DNA sequence: GCAAAAGTGTTGGAAATACACCCATGT
DNA sequence: ACATGGGTGTATTTCCAACACTTTTGC
């Protein structure tokens, strides 16, 4: 039998009091912003703000303001740094180890965002903001390498279950581009014929009746992702046990 | 082009200062603790601590201490309320709407936990701690109904991809119990023969050579989950596109 | 012997894989 | 003409869903 004491019934004053004594924990959001360029998966990074991490790379993040929701904070960070606000953004998970921030106790909520690099050229390059190719050794500040890894795994899984990869491509894209994207995200090679067959049978692509141009070979058709068709598809009825 | 100003390069003092002005945001953990009893999925709940929510049900949660990791805080809450500490626990996601807590700005990290009700009988019942049957109308405090729903959906998905359902059962269980568990979690009926076939072909069950007893019909065999076999299985090689 | 659930196999269809050839374009 | 990748079809295999009867126990 445990002997710890239980919290007593509290009113608002008590909560505020406990917050004041216990509460100096900062909350931040960190955005892992993926882009796709030259058939490679890239991440937006800047040089760290903190002197302790001088020279190291950092994700885009900021403390959450007291009057904004977490999602709002993530969108704000994105907007401040890139000027973009019509982007895919989703919460991934929190990181709250006591020692993860050298200055203070800061719990961070990681967000994952996907944007089309060509469509949204960077407009500011403060702190050497740039697209960084994903690689094993990136010399990152804080626990940002961990956050990046978790978000990459999240993306690999998510992209197989939801049609969010399209956010990384131009509105009109060839099947080759789509396949390159999946291969880059998953880090595997896929059979071209089966890949096509799969996407066509899913019936979420819409033929634009346009073709690629400026390619040194037979141009491919360009497609758009059809949200309507996707939304009206009904989900699975049965269990898919798989572990 | 955005005209917002960018944060300047900061040192530790600046971070601390910003934290003090910006930072009075509380962080809590809330645990959604699932159990399985009488073929029903249950959740541990208490009567809310807060006067504003008098009479309403609440998940088990507490503010995170400044010197403990998030996971530690979740384990602590679990231990304080139930006396158990050898349980499955996993972070699900954060909830941080500005208005979610009436007393102050409190961001909460939701954790999901699975425990075997028979093995760990409740030892304290402060605040009417009890196992609550899942249902549509539960009159819950805060945004706890939302958190519960998100965690339930998380569980439905997770239990199909990872062998965590076993945490809800006794160490030795019949296939019927296992199937009842899956049916309760997923809210669907499954074919008994295909269910067995599936689990046997996954090769993660170990025959204990024991039988059920005290059942008013032919007793079933009892099995254990074999972690070793599970761990040594290799993952999928290929892409499983499915949306 | 009757009720109730355990235990077991087969079959048809759908989806995944592996694989090879012709076609359209730029150079 | 040739190099490059686009576009297509088929045979095989694997997985899933549907389905019915016999067996073992308690009462």
Number of β-strand runs of chain A: 9
Q: Tell me the series of helices and strands of chain A, N- to C-terminal.
A: HEEEEHEEEHHHEEH
Largest interface here, residues on each chain? A-B, 75 and 75 residues
Mean pLDDT of chain A: 88
Question: Which overall shape of chain A is indicated by the principal axes computed on the Cα atoms?
Answer: globular
Distance between the termini of chain A: 36 Å
Q: Biggest β-sheet of chain A: count, sense, barrel?
A: 7 strands, mixed
What structural category do the secondary elements of chain A indicate? alpha+beta
Percent in strands of chain A? 15-25%
Helix count of chain A, per DSSP?
6
Which features would summarize this protein structure in a list?
homodimer, about 240 residues, alpha+beta, 7-stranded mixed beta sheet, two-stranded antiparallel sheet, 6 helices, disordered N terminus, DNA-binding
